[in-house]
Amino acid sequence: xxxxxxxxxxxxxGGVAKLRELILTLAVQGxxxxxxxxxxPASVLLQKIRAEKDRLMAEGKIKRDxxxxxxxxxxxxxxxxxxxxxxRLPEIYYSISPSSNKxxxxxxxxxxxxxxxxxxxxxxxxxxxDRALLIExxxxxxxxxxxxxxxxHIDFDFVAGADGxxxxxPVLQDEKFFAFQLxxxxxxxxxxxxxFKVLNAQLFALPPLAEQSRIVTRVEAxxxxxxxxxxxxxxxAAHHAQVVSTLLGTLTASTTPEELAAHWQRVAQHFxxxxxxxxxxxxLEQTLLQLAVRGLxxxxxxTDEPASELLDxxxxxxxxxxxxxxxxxxxxxxxFPYELPDRWxxxxxxxxxxxxxxxxxxxxxxxxxxxxxxxxxxxxxxVQINEFRPREHKVLPSKLSPRPEIEVQDGDILITxxxxxxxxxxxxxxxxxxxRLMLSDKIVRFHPAADEMLPxxxxxxxxxxxxxxQIEAAKSGMAASQVNISQSDLRGFxxxxxxxxEQSRIVTRVxxxxxxCADLRQRLADRQSLQARLAQALVDEAAGA
Length: 545
Known about the structure:
Layout: H1 6-11, H2 15-28, H3 42-58, E1 85-88, E2 93-96, E3 102-103, E4 114-117, E5 126-128, E6 141-145, E7 151-154, E8 159-161, E9 165-170, H4 175-184, H5 196-200, E10 203-206, H6 209-252, H7 257-268, H8 271-274, H9 278-292, H10 307-322, E11 345-348, H11 349-352, E12 353-358, E13 376-378, E14 383-384, E15 387-388, E16 393-395, E17 413-416, E18 424-426, E19 437-438, E20 443-448, H12 455-463, H13 465-474, H14 487-492, E21 494-497, H15 500-544
Parallel strand pairs: 3-8, 4-8, 13-19
Antiparallel strand pairs: 1-10, 2-9, 4-5, 6-7, 6-9, 11-21, 12-20, 13-16, 14-15, 17-18, 17-20
């Protein structure tokens, strides 16, 4: 049953990870390989384990165990196959104490003679040349991360990393099977607190030694299959991304609406292939934005006024509003990546908008506002691409006075000026009244200088490809999470503009196409959710069979 449904499991969201968990679950329940009645039962193996631990204690090589309670029937999580035994975990291993043989993380080197194993997820954390710290293990051991819950099978001498490195030596067992079962434990997560006590409270399903070996062979073969499925999925994802890029590239290479229509037919033939991943829909939506601001999504109307006339009126009105003469145009014309349709022109953002400014980022309280009269400060996550999420905010402490002059108003154009990804949206109050939200200093707002420029078109242009390239080029800051764009840079960004009537046609068309993309995302999410439920049902059925 496991292998017959492996394609569904592997292609479901998180499917390969679920498959790995299922393999370990079946392994420790005795459902992965058939039992052999000729195997020496685990009860005999347990007697040998106890005798071996008694010998090591008598020789002073290990410490004497603390008494352990008998296992009550109600403690047993499932029924074991014939020949298996339930044991408390501390019964079947002993600890190797690193004592003073621990190395501080600050002393770990990139290169050296001896490997360092700590409680982190990596098999080897680094190296050292200090032989005095080397632990010579009597055989393969399991390293458990007291803080991290990491479980590693180690079969070489090593130096232990400081703090949280627990070394377990299984007695007379297959060490790999021991590690498999430990990885299958669902340990309570205590954050960075210690987990060793939680681990030792687990019951261990002990099979005959011969069956342990058969299980390990089977598990390793199935894990190699999972590795192959994972690699196949990564290769398919890379191939898919390349195909998507190529197909969408034919759209952006269009120079006329007629050429775009022909290329669109080619893309439409591959919709099933193209739109079966969320990132492909995202790429399609970004492509549509680029086509929109190049004048290729809607037909041109020769009766529309030239954009140059619109630009003259906007800049003159802005100069009048500002109480000063119009600034002369810069003689230096920048490079533009594509030609605009007739009657369109390029303009700098600063010539089209006014009242540009940012806000304030005081130390705020976390959580939702229980009192709607309290003020909040927008997080940058409130501004998404063509979207506004007013509930993404922090709460202003009552000891601080609000600043009404930076209160977010309905219809503000907002752009995040900090962070690895910059987004532009329009504030819109739907279910939150009164707003009582202020701008943070990481968000800039502005408004069109005249009603000839539609706010939605400006937002569309700022979210499209060429302006995004300008944003990336203008960023300053060392860390990716702290890069900033100045308001001066924002004012200098070039965007394509057209007549107000064409702006309206474009915004209407883009809105409809973005609704289509949202519908495609929802259908894909529903399909993936169904696939995930089917995969989980198969996992549950297999684990409970």
